[in-house]
Amino acid sequence: MRESYVYGRTRPLASLSERWVGQLLDSLVAIAAVLVSAIPYVFSQTLGAVCLLIGVFFALLYTLLADGLRKGQSYGKRIMKTAVIDASSGQPCTFGKSFLRNLLLALLGFIDWVFIFGAKRQRLGDKAANTIVVKYP
C-alpha cells in the first residue's frame, strides 16, 4: 500500500479502485439529480423546464464542488471511506481546490485520469490543486 507523507504522518493513499468507484458514485448522484428534476416535465412543460434547469445546475455544482464538503468527502468518497486532502498541510479539501481539481477532470476527461498512475496517484487536477486522495481513518 502506498502512503503519502503529510506533516509527520503517513496516510495510506486511496487505491485506484476506491477512487474509480467513488467517482462513479458521485457521477450517479449528479445523474440522479437531473433525472429527478425532469419528473415535473410530465405534468407541465414550463415547470419541468425550470426544474430541469435547476437539476442540471445542481449536478454541475455537485460535480465541481463536492470534494469540498465536510472532511474533504463527497458522497461517493464518504461511502468508499476516502477523502481529498491538501498534499502539503493534510487539511481537508476546500471548495476552491475541489473546483480546480474537478474542472480539469471535466475539461480533459480521460486525459486527466492517465496521470493517476504516478507515485502519489494524482490526476492532473490533483497536481494543479496540490491535493491527494487518502483512505479516511
Protein structure class: alpha+beta
> Percentage of helical residues?
40-55%
Rg measurement, Å: 16 Å
Count of separate structural domains: 1
> How would you state the average pLDDT, rounded?
90
Major beta-sheet overview: 2 strands, antiparallel
Q: What does the overall shape look like?
A: elongated
Strand arrangement within the widest β-sheet reads 1-2
Uncertain regions spanning at least 5 consecutive residues? none
Explain briefly what this protein structure is.
By secondary structure, the chain is an alpha+beta fold. The chain has helices at residues 16-38, 45-65, 75-80, 95-108, 110-114, 124-129; strands at 3-6, 9-12, 82-86, 131-135. The protein has one domain.
List the helices and strands and how they pair.
Layout lengths: L2 E4 L2 E4 L3 H23 L6 H21 L9 H6 L1 E5 L8 H14 L1 H5 L9 H6 L1 E5 L2
Helix pairs in contact: 1-2
